[in-house]
Amino acid sequence: MKISVITATYNSAVTVEETLTCIREQDHPDIEHIIVDGGSTDTTLDIVRRFPHVSRVVSEKDKGIYDAMNKGIGLSTGSVIGILNSDDIYTDRGVLSAVADAFRDPAIMTVYADLQYVYPDDINRIQRTWRSGGFKKKNFYFGWMPPHPTFFVRREVYDQAGLFNLDLRSAADYELMLRILLKKGISTYYLQRVIVKMRAGGMSNVTLGNRLRANQEDRLAWKLNGLRPYFFTLYLKPLRKIHQFIIK
């Protein structure tokens, strides 16, 4: 089972080496690692060139991280596709093997797992663990979502459901998972283990203002899919996100 992992980079020299190393050290035998770079002006591409496991590198201007992810999906050839950001890492060398084992059941079309937020300057210091829990459609109505860096899908899922919506700046991953899991009702499996360490401070969570602005896009995500959330759905979600970074 070939697994394609897509990493979008842009001036990522400070962190990308750790991302590249964690994928190079995976024990799964068939990995396609694709780097989609937005035209970095630092040493990002020099670092990438030191890793011969990388299958393909594209460097050109793009319309943002989700455009880069869409490009990577289009370039990929694996039967399963995952996305790992250039400042995130897999927790151990057996992560992709565990994902592949889950997909051996042909009825499973998507897989997600748990994630740890770590401090930006020390990936060994855990700030918070995101325990996803088992999937139920109704959970989306209570502010739930799986952590996107842990989300793997079969290629045909993108063929059926489409790619990231570039009209959404910070909620494109949320909208995609909402579309796949809730609107389309595509099957999923909860891999009950932490598989990703993510540096805290994503663009929708850096400040309270950013989180509230992102909440407006979350509302749009529901509207674009013709779905009507409960009144409090999109009020619980930002509060849970804010809590992740206030409570240590």
Tell me the name of the CATH homologous superfamily of the largest domain: Spore Coat Polysaccharide Biosynthesis Protein SpsA, Chain A
What is the succession of H and E elements? EHEHEHEEHEEEHHEHH
What is the CATH level 1 assignment of the largest domain? Alpha Beta
Largest sheet, strands/sense/barrel? 9 strands, mixed
- Radius of gyration based on Cα positions: 17 Å
Give the DSSP E fraction (strand runs of 2 or more residues).
15-25%
Query: How many DSSP-defined strands?
Result: 9
CATH architecture level-2 label of the largest domain: Alpha-Beta Complex
What structural class results from the helix and strand content? alpha/beta
**Termini distance?**
39 Å
Instruction: Tell me, briefly, the overall form.
Output: globular
Low-confidence stretches: 203-209, 237-248
